Amino acid sequence: MSAPLVVSIIALVLSLASISWQAWSWWWSGPIVKVTGASDSPIYEGQQSDLGYHYIQVVNTGRAAATIEAFGVTLPSGLKPIRYRQDDLDAVEPCALPYRLESHSSARSAPLYERP
Which of 39, 105, 106, 115 is the S-S candidate for 59 at Cβ 3.0 to 4.6 Å? Predict the structure, then answer.
């Protein structure tokens, strides 16, 4: 093998490694938002209440901020029982929408109570 061919192969390998690293870095440089939902029930005077509630928690593990403009729940049947937008601010006190979620931070919705 000639020297120019070896140098060319090494340059090609290093170029592919560099472009792969840049693509990976770019992909992970923005906001990475994970949304979870959970249920809980409050405890009053040492006893668990029968009134259950649900909440939505959002965690941003990316390096950039994200803005939450609306949130909602869709059941597997396609029913959407909970939807909040800017018009529904009374329902989502104390967090007002749109809500800016900074990098490496989390936010939780106000309790979404079950209707008896």
Answer: 106
DSSP states along 20-71: HHHHHHHHTSS--EEEEEEEE--EETTEE-S--EEEEEEEE-SSS-EEE--E
The predicted pLDDT at position 89 comes to 39
C-beta neighbour count of 58 within 10 angstroms: 18
- The residue with tokens 């029913």 is 79
A 10 A CB-CB count for 74 gives 11
pTM: 0.58
Give the chain's residues under pLDDT 70: 42-44, 48-52, 75, 80-96, 110-116
Contact 68, 98 (CB under 8 A): yes
Which ranges of 1-116 does DSSP label H, i.e. alpha helix?
3-27
Tokens of 92: 């989502």
In this structure, are strands 99-101 and 71-73 parallel, antiparallel, or unpaired? unpaired
* Interatomic CA distance for residues 37 and 100, integer angstroms: 19
pLDDT at 91: 42
Extract the tokens encoding 46. Answer: 């040492």
